[in-house]
Amino acid sequence: MADKKKAGAFDIRIVIAALIGIYGVVLTILGIVEKQQEIDKAAGININLWGGIAMLVFTALFVLWARLRPIAVPVEEDGTGE
Amino acid sequence: MLPQQSILRLDATAIDYIIIALYFVFVLGIGYLARRAVSSSLDFFLSGRSLPAWVTGLAFISANLGAIEIMGMSANGAQYGIPTVHYFWIGAVPAMLFLGVVMMPFYYGSKVRSVPEFMLRRFGKPAHLVNAISFALAQVLIAGVNLFLLATIVNVLLGWPIWVSVIVAAAIVLSYITLGGLSAAIYNEVLQFFVIVAALLPLTLVGLHKVGGWQGLVDKVSASPGGSEQMSAWPGNALSGFHNSFLSVIGIVFGLGFVLSFGYWTTNFTEVQRALASKNMSAARRTPIIGSFPKMFIPFIVIIPGIIAAVVVPELAQFKANGSGQVDYNDALLLLMRDLLPNGMLGLAITGLLASFMAGMAANLSSFNTVMSYDIIERYLIKDRPDEFYLQTGRIVTVAGTLVAIGTAAIASGYSNLMDYLQQLFSFFNAPLFATFILGMFWKRMTATAGWIGLVSGTATAILVFVLSENGVINLPGQGASFVGAGAAFVVDIVISVVVSLVTTPKRDTELVGLVYSLTPKQQRTEVAVAGDGGWYRRPVLLAGISLTLTIILNIIFA
Please, are residues B30 and B187 in contact by the beta-carbon 8 Å criterion? Predict the structure, then answer.
């Protein structure tokens, strides 16, 4: 897939960003409408909200990375984090 | 693990199922997309040797981030506490760095398609056959463990019978590997890595908050039956099973670190295959080295939740105190998820576990099909057919391997601590393998006969130690028996190999170029400069140095 001709649509970074992004949106919405009972369950942290926001930030970074360094150029200083 | 269904039933709602379903849509989508790129057997088995290093590096980690890691290590965390980190900081990381710096040039440089194939070129057919068969056997056994745990989760979640869960889980993994081959497996492993982190990191943070931060955890564990020594890594007596602290340190460093982990990480084709799929020598060497960075932080999201579960979850705390109740250490993560996560995050956590077990099983199957097709079928059974034949064979072998794994899932269900079971397997297969490899790579005098006799006698030694400890002749609790078994297997393999080598005829030097250190010219061992491979952060040895330094610092902090 690192072949230049085939790459574009199937850049794994975009696929990862898409899935985590969808999760981020869903969890953030859940977090906003969260009931107090659920928050108490998680030791007082609204984990859906904060987790959702963190995933949206992650998505933005991955899309940015894919934009700045299009396929076929291996970039490895990133992607190991989280 | 059967009677606890009612206790462990997670309170999943529609939104959790949507999150899980989304993941499966992506997994199968990747399999479908990857299929378009598969046109030859090299594409199917080695991704056409085309992937960038960060992709193979994360896949390298994910391939191992299966049931063993997630459930086994959190179970160990709950039982033994912080000393479990040795599996990562003494075991995995140094071994991965060694693989990248020292051994990868021989694997990638010799253009072999599998680890057994390296064995074939260095030692000839008997050693190759021993290695290929024992590897294939180990993979289907371990695939069975992963499959069983995967089915357990589905069983807990949906209440389906275990056997239905096993078959459905197997069908999903099977479908994306047969579609897209190694590329599909690797891309899914990278995706799985992020999903697993997204699932376990929030669980860890909520758990830590619950016990009152790090200090709160230290206080709670010190007051628990585990005691304060469970919060420091060394000397780890409970883990190794040695009462003497000095012996314990030796056991961990030599048994777990040098023999078990080096054996596992440097010769296990499941992981090495990920590096062989990368696009050039530099990327191949960087694969395990890049992987070592996330690897050293995985204990924080796997072991720590296990430790937290043992002090926070009442049922598990009771089990740790007096061994009673309906739960055991393997349930640590599930219990913690049940008690702490709200719907939404709960769905994601379940997805993470499913992802992890599928990654593990997919990795086992994709390396199993390569060794079966290239090393056993093409080499010994059905020779000289066109490439499409072996591509098709690979797909059929994957189906057959899955069916066998369903059977081995039944074996796995009989053991309470799966980690013990897997450690035994690794000491059977990997410790002698590592001894043979390392001697063969650095001692050109070592002969082909020594190769297979050493392997067989080493494996026999490991099995002997296993039988002795099962019958109580050697009495070591914890993982001590595995450490001793692995150490003995290593030593016996080396001694027998040296003795046999001295009385048999070695191969000619010209046959060993690219396979033995002293006979391989330096330019063949190092990477050729490639455009786009510049930059200090792409130099394997420097990266390895940074990784090693970080690991040593972690060891000191948690000593």
Answer: yes
Q: What is the DSSP string of B144-177?
A: HHHHHHHHHHHHHHH---HHHHHHHHHHHHHHHH
Q: What angle do CA B54, B59, B65 make, to 5 degrees?
A: 135
A50, amino acid identity: W
Q: Compute the mean pLDDT over every residue in chain B, rounded to the nearest whole number.
A: 79
Do B365 and B401 touch, CB atoms closer than 8 A? yes
Domains in chain B, CATH or no CATH each: 5-557 (1.20.1730.10)
Whether residue A5 lies within 8 A of chain B, CB to CB, comes out as: no
Q: How far apart are CA B188 and CA B363, in angstroms?
A: 10
| CB-CB under 8 Å, A15 with B345 | no
**Cβ–Cβ contact B433 with A under 8 A:** no
Q: What local confidence, expressed as pLDDT, does residue B227 receive? A: 67
Q: Which residue has the higher pLDDT, B56 or B529?
A: B56
Going B173 to B179 to B185 to B190, the CA torsion angle's sign is: negative
Residue among B430, B423, B402 nearest B493 (CA):
B430
pLDDT band at A56 (very low <50, low <70, confident <90, very high): very high
**Per-residue pLDDT at B418:** 58
Q: Which residues of B touch A20 (CB under 8 A)?
A: 194-195, 198
Burial of B260 (0-12, 13-18, 19+ CB in 10 A): buried
Interchain CB contact of B54 with A (< 8 Å) = yes
Nearest by CB: A16 against B194, B207, B344: B194
> d(Cα B113, Cα B320) in Å, to the nearest integer?
46
- Report the residue of B16, B23, B25, B194 to disrupt the A interface, i.e. the one with the largest count of A CBs within 10 Å: B194
Q: What is the ipTM of this complex?
A: 0.78
Show the tokens assigned to B288: 């395990």
Cα B120 to Cα B157: distance, rounded to the nearest angstrom: 46
A65 touches chain B (CB under 8 A): no
**Quick one: residue B205, left, alpha or beta (phi over 0 = left, psi -120 to 50 = alpha)?**
alpha
d(CA A1, CA B389): 23
Q: Do A82 and B197 touch (CB under 8 A)?
A: yes
Q: Hey, is the C-beta of B10 within 8 angstroms of any chain A C-beta?
A: no
What distance in Å separates residue B50's CA from the closest CA in chain A?
6
Q: Render B312-376 in DSSP notation, one character per residue.
A: HSHHHHHHHHHS-SS--GGGHHHHHHHHHPPTTHHHHHHHHHHHHHHHHHHHHHHHHHHIIIIII
Residue position matching structure tokens 């590592």: B434
Mean pLDDT of all residues in B451-480 = 78
